[in-house]
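Work through this protein:
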Amino acid sequence: MSDMSDMSDLDFEGWTCPAPLRDTPTVVMGHGGGGQLSADLIANLFLPAFGAAAQADLGDSAVLEVPAGRLAFSTDSYVVKPMFFPGGCIGDLAVNGTVNDLAMAGARPLFLSTAFVVAEGTTMAELGRIAEAMGAAAVRAGVRLVTGDTKVVDHGNGDGVYVTTAGIGVVPDGLRIHPDQARPGDAVLLSGPIGRHGVAVLSRREGLEFGSEVASDTAPLHGLVAALVAGGIDVRVLRDPTRGGVAATTNEIARAAGVGIELVERDLPIPAGVRDACGLLGLDPLQVANEGILLAIVPADQAQEAVTILRAQEYGEGACRVGRVVADHPGVVVCRTGLGGTRVLGLPIGEQLPRIC
């Protein structure tokens, strides 16, 4: 062992304590180290913020009682910038996004995991707001936050907070909802106005104003799905048109089922604020992200009943029929314009608006 008796020649300039003070207004590297600071963060920030949605110990794994049925499993990561935007933040977005991914398979969401990558220097106030939004969203959706993880990256190697959520839900026996189930003659429905999430994030990121504020539509959608199933609707396909918007979603369905899809432009529910923003910026509202609407394909003779059911539910008041599935031009989506012509609605080449969700 080296002789440590004479410390006079050592240069301590620039050294930092490996265990920072526990009373700190910002996230430090020690909060991701698995020691006392990590325990403090869980006990004093995450668990109180999650509230009634949190599993008591929120450990590295959870043992869960699952009702009978088939399991649905989903995972997603959220890197939205800015973290806070009109109508929501990265916290409720992460919960609602995974809840909705489960719901689009016909599942009733039950449990979520939460994993955070936090940049050193992020304020505790910001992290607390995000965690509180997650807890409130989980309570609203009726799911439990049962396990999680936190990592801290040093300054310069991260940007704010990134969140990964994974979810488990139960699908009733006999229910199969999948893009390949679309059939010629079926009706295409939307549960509400499109384009609000993408425009809300863009407006806050770039400091833009479009006359009236456009708020994100982030919301849990499993109640809409449950109502359709309980109402006896033969739901063929469900999708939440997030990144790539309605354009990406309908193209995915058309290719999976080997059918064509025809949308009617005048029937598309595009809010005035979204239309104005997209017109100003040269964006197509059909390619802008959504986080609180679903696209459903159902038999044509059940379309009006399905719209009525959706409109009676929270988050479905703006439901409408917007198109149909056709045998022509398989794998291709077209829009019928107000002038009587048609235009091909292709897949977006890339991301119109990066870091939207």
